[in-house]
Amino acid sequence: MQSAIPVSSVWRRPVSPLHCRCEEGDLDLVVIGAGYQGLSTALHAARAGLSVQVIEAGGIGDGASGVNGGQVIPGLKQDPETLLALFGDEAGRRLIEFSAGTADFVFDLIAREGLDVEHTRSGWIQAAHTETAMQAAVQRNRQWRAQGADVALLNPAEIALLTGAEGYRGGFLDRRAGVVNPLALVHELARIATEAGAALLLNDAATSLQREGTFWQVSTRSGRSFRARKVLVATNAYSEGLVPNLARSLVWLHSFQIATEPLPPDFDFILPSGQAVSDSRRIVLYYRRSADGRLVFGGRAPMRVPQSTDDWLHLERAMRRLFPMLGSMRIEQRWFGRVAMTPDYMPHLHEPQPGLLMAAGCQGRGIGLMVALGGVLARYLAEGSREALPLPISPLVPIPLHRFRRLGVAAHLAWYRLLDGLER
User: Fold this and answer.
1) Which of 251, 185, 245, 189 is nearest to 31 (CA)?
2) Of 86, 316, 385, 404, which is the most buried if we count CB atoms within 10 A?
3) How high is the pLDDT of residue 408?
4) Domain membership flag for residue 196
């Protein structure tokens, strides 16, 4: 995924060295993909006594785990009552309990392991830009309060005070959430996973998976070969043809971000308490402050890679609409990444053959969801008990007419952008 222009993010890489190596002999587990899901699973599987080899096509943080907005949001896209309706009482409550604790899992891991990751846990705001969106916030607040979550509704004055932005009708505040340096987090996960005993191979893509008796044979671009009893394909939005129908079960989009120059001290009214924000528009806008005081602002973008800085102009316009006081504040960095969506806006677990496992679809909850999911996936891979899983294992179902997804996504984005513009 090469851009025609140089791109760089604001996120700092830790200085801790990584020790890359390859395991020899038969393995318990091969993990394909060194993002949050893959590395968290490798860490917890290695600590459970499994021999683990991680294979990554690029470098640590080259995919979505290193270029996202760093928002750690608990829960899922759907609220508790919808989850109960979809999965029934027992499975629904297990999923609610798991998703409610995903941010806890991340911040507890950072504290317990002493990870070199800038982080702030001041909460997440879902900002309502219309009265209809505000009514949805009322329902979300009611449902999560019934689950005992530390959440609240914000009126127009409160949300203006917490964000410094103009035009919101109110919003939903989830105090369980926070922000991290996403690139530092994935690097630190790689460090502690290798220290726990997981082997790590970088810049060498897995190119084939073959079942041989009770083992899986995994071959790579460079000609390496690994035998493992189980395989986790943790490639998410970067899934290509390795597993039939996996890529065709997902719709991937580009998420673009910009960062201003460090804001001057008299702009301390912009996100003064350090919350992350996502708004209620159909094409979501999201923003936060970085550790060095920049405003980091992101949103959806075309599926093609950017060709010039003009491809980020829609974000600059949106940012200056919400924060007109920024005026001619310079945009110093621009970057982008790929994210995966599912048609029902739910994460999916698949096991198309015995010992071949995968999870995909984050819907904006990727950091908390995938880091926490790594813990339960490791337990399932080690013990084989489905009771450890918060989601049912479902069949891989390709999206109809998937080859035309670019046209469909482009049409949806254009239509949603028009509707969002009319609602301002």
Assistant:
1) 189
2) 316
3) 52
4) yes
Stretch 106-111: mean pLDDT, rounded? 98
The model's pLDDT over 160-210, given as tens digits with 9 standing for 90+, comes to 999 999 999 999 999 999 999 999 999 999 999 999 999 999 999 999 999
Cα–Cα distance for residue pair 283/253, rounded to 1 Å: 11
Helix (H) or strand (E) holding 331: strand 331-341
Contact 183, 121 (CB under 8 A): no
- Residue written as tokens 């080259």? 62
| Number of domains forming the structure of the chain | 1
Q: Are 197 and 23 contacting, i.e. CB atoms less than 8 angstroms apart?
A: no
Residue 175 lies in a domain: yes
* 209 DSSP β-pair partners: 218
Amino acid at 258: I
Could you write out the DSSP letters of every residue in 94-133?
HHHHHHHTHHHHHHHHHHHHT----EE-S-EEEEE-SHHH
Q: How far apart are CA 392 and CA 387, in angstroms?
A: 9
CATH number of the domain bearing residue 221: 3.50.50.60
DSSP-derived secondary structure letter, 218: E
Query: Does 338 fall in a domain?
Result: yes
Residue 3 lies in a domain: no
Q: Which residues contact 370 (CB under 8 A, 6 or more apart)?
A: 35, 36, 37, 40, 65, 236, 359, 362
Question: E strand or H helix at 15, and its extent?
Answer: none
pTM: 0.93
Beta strands, E only, 178-304: 178-180, 199-201, 206-212, 215-220, 225-233, 251-260, 276-279, 285-289, 295-301
Residues in Cβ contact with 421 at an 8 Å cutoff, skipping those fewer than 6 apart: none
Q: Which domain holds residue 112?
A: 27-402
Over residues 313-325, the pLDDT tens digits come to 999 999 999 999 9
